[in-house]
Amino acid sequence: xxxLKSIFIILLSTLLFTACVDDLDVTxxxxxxxxxxxxxxxxxxxxxxxxxxxxSFIIAGQGANGGSDISASDENFxxxxxxxxxxxxxxxxxxxxAWGDVGISDLNTQTWSPSNPFLTALYQRLGLSxxxxxxxxxxxNGSSDPKVIQYNxxxxxxxxxxxxxxxxxxxxxxxxxxxxxxxxxxxxxxxxADLFDYxxxxxxxxxxxxxxxxxxxxxxxxxxxxxxxxxxxxxxxEVYTGTAHWDDCKTYTxxxxxxxxxxxxxxxxxxxxxxxxYPTNPEMIFAxxxxxxxxxxxxxxxxxxxxxxxxxxxxxEDYHGLTxxxxxxxxxxxxxxxxxxxxxxxxxGGPIDMNDVEFSQAKDKRTFxxxxxxxxxxxxxxxxxxxxxxxxxxxxxxxxxxxANYNAAYACTDFPIFRLADAYLMRAEANFNLGNxxxxxxxxxxxxxxxxxxxxxxxxxxxLTSQFILDERAREFYYxxxxxxxxxxxxxxxxxxxNWQWKGGVFNGTAxxxxxxxxxxPGDEVSANSNITQxxxx
Length: 538
Known about the structure:
The protein is mostly helical. Helices cover 38% and strands 5% of the residues. It has helices at 31-34, 46-55, 80-89, 104-108, 117-140, 146-169, 192-206, 223-235, 237-241, 246-258, 300-308, 316-319, 335-347, 420-433, 437-452, 466-477, 483-489, 523-528, and strands spanning 27-28, 70-71, 96-97, 174-175, 188-189, 284-288, 331-332, 369-371, 388-390, 415-419.
């Protein structure tokens, strides 16, 4: 198995995109119908079913062979990574969406309710992936076959990842394991701090079962993926539990960095090109694989590319390598995010010439931005012609050639979940909070030397503040579905110390209620399950 796609049991048929959602009902289908094969009758199905669990995070379902796993009028709209991206990005300064679909404007302005369809879809999708994993784990527990033991650990990792996102986004979700079985019952609710303990315990239990970092079959999980998820959980521990775990965050980022399995890509751009897979790109630790032939759908990186392009300012044909069903004119950045880049460039090698509409003179090579008609966005749902165009992801290889499985409509670019740069910046933040400013600066400068191509952007301990760390994470990870979580950790998602255009539904932005730091449990779930208590404030 050279790639995980070789064990997928599905080839998605061509899917038609529509920006309008007429029917917002999203209903999970019967898992017994969706799960392929019967492991008890024929263990040969095992890798295919494991592949199904991986695939549940990035694509809609089995296409012509079984349809979407969750019924919706547009099955692409409500896939896990697409809904997650919306919740993590367009609720922040990094992105805003021009489309008028129900629920989009609510995310743009932080005015959502428990009926928001993207919240419902992600909640159901994460629960479905957990159900798949629970069933697989139950059927493979107790095996003495080393390969089966590894597959079992991978399923536990994927379940822990789904629970991490549940914990981060919804706080107190329903909780099930393989002990509960698969069937119709009302799950009990778990509290956020207890879920934190569970995820940490699970990840530590499988750490030694998975292949050593960098030795597994990409993009399947190995020790490096486990260490990165543990570091990410510990990074946000104070938000989740009230108690910081900076030492633990440093411990697991140390493991990643000191493993020797990974290295920063020489060019930042390779992380977002069609050949961004490990080991071609040694920076990629764990990603959702996409392929123009085998994992088709307007999801993941294909969605980011197409929704960020438009026929006038950032044409997909010119910037991204896609030529079919292009230029959706939806997502773009708000000028407040661009100001983060401008401020840093003004200090380290700037200022930017504002007539340089593509920032070609920018010293920081992470600036894949283009100014549009106006930096100011007239309304929260105005045309994508306003704001800042972002062309970070591309469907072409790093050298500009087409990948082997090139498709004019669907990108072959994997969506990064964990890459080495995050290990350095998480460790820098941990060291900063532990009082080790010199070590924090050293890690940040490793990232900045790649960004600048030399030491022109290097900082000193005098430059190091918590605000600088937050801004540096924005410069490095924009459009990678991390911004909301980072802003919450630094206390800037809802409070009035940092506002951006249309935050709270006001042009210049305004403070919003702190209860919005957690999304609501979908209203349908609260109504149907008497064991579920709605999050405070909703």
